[in-house]
Amino acid sequence: MSRSIAVLVAGVAAVVMVLSKFIVPMESAETTVAEWFNAAAAIAFVLGGASLLKMNLLTISARGPGWGYAAVTLVAFLATLGVGLFKVGVPPSAAFPDHRMGGTPDAEGGALWWIYEYLMSPITGTLFAMLAFYVASAAFRAFRAKNAAAIFLLVTAFVVLLGRTYAGVFVTSWIPDDVPWVSWLRLENLSAVIMSVFTTAGTRAMIIGIAIGVAATGIKIMIGLDRSYLGAGAGGGNG
Amino acid sequence: MLADAADPAQKAWFAADKVPLLVALAVVVAAVLGSIALARTGRPIRIRRLAGLDAVEEAVGRATEMGRPILFVPGIQDMDNIMTVAGVTILGHVAKVAAEYDAEIEVPTSRSIVMTAARDTVQAAYLAAGRPDSYNPDRIYYVTDDQFAYVAATSGMMARKKPAACFYFGCFFAESLILAENGNAVGAIQVAGTAETAQLPFFVAACDYTLIGEEFFAASAYLSGEPDQVGTLLGQDVVKAIVWFVGLAAAALGTVAALQGPDGALQPFVSAMRAAMGGGA
């Protein structure tokens, strides 16, 4: 029964979203449905918070691997929650200068703002910066010249990389840029051709396939044909 | 053009500039529903094997032999993202195989609704496998909504528990490579699938198998094997053939029009077609 209701809600929401694209008076319905989803997500966040507390408390009590990290997570979670809820250090708003709780929780100068600005941002930036090393290690494996396709990939990557550096421009600078039938051999031009012709063509082919796949999946969900996301028919029979 | 012909009162309720989109939508719906009807007649439809999905059993079997857990990451977006829905669908299959092998599956999520949906799916999978008692909801848990905090927690978990098989199915951004490289570092067999074209090269480089774009959305039909679902795959191929034909015809017409010059007879037609495709006149 609950699954049938979920399928009905999903189907109606999907039809409303489609109609809102074509029926002008229904344009705002898309936003309304999105707001309903956000409201449901906010309620579900309580479940998420409870799960976070439970999992970390279990890890700490069992002294499982990494229980220290679980303790740090718990302290950080509760501290941030408290700071945000009680608006610690938040300057009063212009509209309510006499009320301490009048400002927004993330107002500049508040504790929550400070946590975000001086803890979250640097840590996030550090993790993002680590991507450079991950890219290098993945590229090292991907570009091993073990067969013809890998050699082709390696050479193409080398041309694109070199063509986007000053060294690449310098190496082929002797090729005249004003003679059309040879100018494409300059590394910066070759790199641009590879990116704008071959890469774009391949990416567009993928995007068209994805768009059709998304539309077909949407239709399946809309008419209730695919209920696997609700746990119905999990696994199927083919695998 | 239709807007001009229509009554002014009609203009107010129908977005006439979206007629090409409506036509495209009608073609897709007709192709998909027509293919479903065709599949229902019992006509056999051949599906290309998807190595990534066929490898699920091998990966889960390996994890069971090694006594290590299986990690499933359903992306970092919410259930309003179609990739997350497709990811949760594949989770059902992976969880069913894990239940059959009595392997431990771990699903850290970055959205609360995804956690609840994943719990329902995994529970149903354990029930379908005849092992409802083995289902442990605590193995499907919420971590955080924040992208990099999520990747830090999941990577830490990977380093500590060393999963033997890692599955990444959903919507991913910059965290895709961090997760896949950490999985590679712990020696896990890795299968990924996403429709984020920018992340596909990273998964292809770091994972053993990758479901690329439309393959990812075909997984539900592929795994169920139901005629109705398989019919939608045929519908997708029909639409792809139409797109291929229209693209080729448009390229040929555009080339001829360009050769004719700005005053050529084909120019108005090409301009109208370009405008209909959203490219401006």
Secondary structure layout plus pairing:
The complex is a heterodimer of chains A (239) and B (281).
Chain A: H1 2-22, H2 27-61, H3 67-85, H4 111-129, H5 131-142, H6 148-163, H7 166-171, H8 180-183, H9 187-222
Chain B: H1 2-5, H2 8-11, H3 19-40, H4 51-66, E1 70-73, H5 82-101, E2 105-109, H6 112-128, E3 140-142, H7 147-161, E4 165-169, H8 175-185, E5 189-194, H9 200-206, E6 209-212, H10 214-224, H11 227-260, H12 267-276
Parallel strand pairs in B: 1-2, 1-4, 2-3, 4-5, 5-6
Question: Any overview of this molecule?
Answer:
The complex is a heterodimer of chains A (about 240) and B (about 280). Chain A is mostly helical and about 240 residues long. Chain A has three domains: about 1-85, no CATH class; about 90-130, no CATH class; about 135-230, no CATH class. Chain A contains nine helices and no strands. The two termini of chain A are about 30 Å apart. The relative contact order of chain A is 0.06. Chain B is α/β, with parallel strands linked by helices and about 280 residues long. Chain B folds into two domains: about 1-45 and about 225-275, no CATH class; about 50-225, Rossmann fold, CATH 3.40.50. In chain B, about 60% of the residues lie in helices and about 10% in strands. In chain B, strands 3-2-1-4-5-6 form a six-stranded parallel beta sheet, with helices on both faces. In chain B, strand 1 (about 70-75), helix 5 and strand 2 (about 105-110) form a beta-alpha-beta unit. In chain B, helix 3 (about 20-40) runs antiparallel to helix 11 and helix 5 crosses helix 10 (about 215-225).
